[in-house]
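Q: Hi! Curious about what VOC family protein looks like structurally. Here's the sequence.
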Amino acid sequence: MSLAQNLSLDHLVINVHYDMDRAQRIFEHLGFYLTTRGFHSLGSINHLMTFDTDYLELVGVPTDSVKVRREILQSPQGLDGLVFKTANASKTYQAIKTQGFALTEVQTFGRPVELAGKVKDAKFKTTRLQPGQFEAGRLYYCQHLTPELVWRPEWQSHPNTSHAIAAILIVDPKPRAQAKRYAALANAFVRRGQHGESRVTCQDFELVFVTENEYRALYGTHACSGKGRKSFFGAMALFARDLCQVREFIIQAVDKNAGIQWTDHGDRITLSLTQYEVVIDFIQSE
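A: Let's find out. The predicted structure is below.
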């Protein structure tokens, strides 16, 4: 069994462990609209920044509960999760397993969502790559059983005009070889970029692979440390409709929060949050 087509991005995950209150405040100051805090049945909490067809998720663990999602605490803070979209988690599980990867069994879980004073359950089916196969972070597939409780117009409009995830950059000692492994997960292909980097082009976003030396040459003081890992998620790129709005919110956020660095390149803006080792490139969309 194989995947019928290359996959779309579902979402990227920023892991903040027990520091959700501060993370929520910072991203709101940066001009993102965050959904109300969600409480997963697995023992984690989250806020979403919902875009056109994908989203950015802040995930953490509650400080006042005995039920704690251990995989969140066992993963480092920062850009930690890459999630592909699937219409059928069970079929995807079988397709990826036949390629020699080890996955967890399909899991169904949810979280309450309040709409117009009524509480409904957002439900999902996921299957995850078992730890140890990809050092950069957690990789999994998500089937939304209730997409209408995630993508809602009132949650998709961000004051900073961000509206889509364009790419994720992955640092690895052997970028070409690693790109081929990720390409197998997305049923996509590897191509060489104009600067020699390896790129995996999926339906609506790209995975970009570089060495650590190339990464540090690109990002300088914005670069993440990697926390001892040879392979890690180094940056993400977001499309914004108006970089002027992005600049205004960053300036305000810097005044209110420590640990924010940014560089204006004219056609893009690089932002780094040192406390979470998160790097974001804002790119002007057409």
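A: A fun detail: The mean pLDDT is 93.
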